[in-house]
Amino acid sequence: MNLMKQIGLALRAVKALGVSQLANYAWYRLGIHSGFIEHISRSALRQALHGIEDVHFQPVLELPARQRLISVLGEGAHALQVEAEEICSGKIRIFGFQQIDLDYRQGKSEQWFTQLERLLIDDKKADRDVKFFWEPARFGWVYPLGRAYWVNPEERYAEKFWEAVETFWENHPPYYGVNWLSGQEV
Question: How many helices (H) and strands (E) does the chain have?
């Protein structure tokens, strides 16, 4: 890009976003390229995890009675069981219809998210769209699995859930890989 185009682009950006927004963005990019954001993120992560031993969860909502859920589901109870069986066999539906393998080893990266972001920006020809990593990581499949467990409490549903969660955390620890690129996805 020649100098005149760069100046024109900069002026349009100032006009559209304002000086304050551009200054914030420039500060962020400087932090990324200098490694400062990586440094403070690692430090904050170490501090947050220090001393954590046992976590106790409290229910947010009271679950409906099992028979009430079954009556509300009606004919959908069978479809729910079919979907739970698909999940247990390692298949999930993304975007509401497309069936894919549930494999959290895909997209694994040993690179800190800020380093990975730079590589993805430089490499416009990524071999796979990032949404196919992000969608399974949203864990939308746990809702039908949880409902199926509540309707028919088979232990293998819970086992599949924990197996997937543990595989995800082993392959996508905090701040590493594509699942940490976007604050919206985190």
Answer: 9, 2
101 and 151 share a domain? yes
Do 186 and 179 touch, CB atoms closer than 8 A? Answer: yes
Q: Does 57 fall in a domain?
A: no
Using 50, 70 and 90 to split pLDDT, how confident is the model at 50? confident
CA–CA separation, 115 and 83 (whole Å): 38
Same-domain check for residues 169 and 121: yes
State residue 95 phi and psi, 5-degree precision. Answer: 55, 25
Three-state SS string over 30-59 comes to: HHHHHCHHHHHHHHHHHHHHCCCCCCCCCC
Tell me the pTM: 0.63
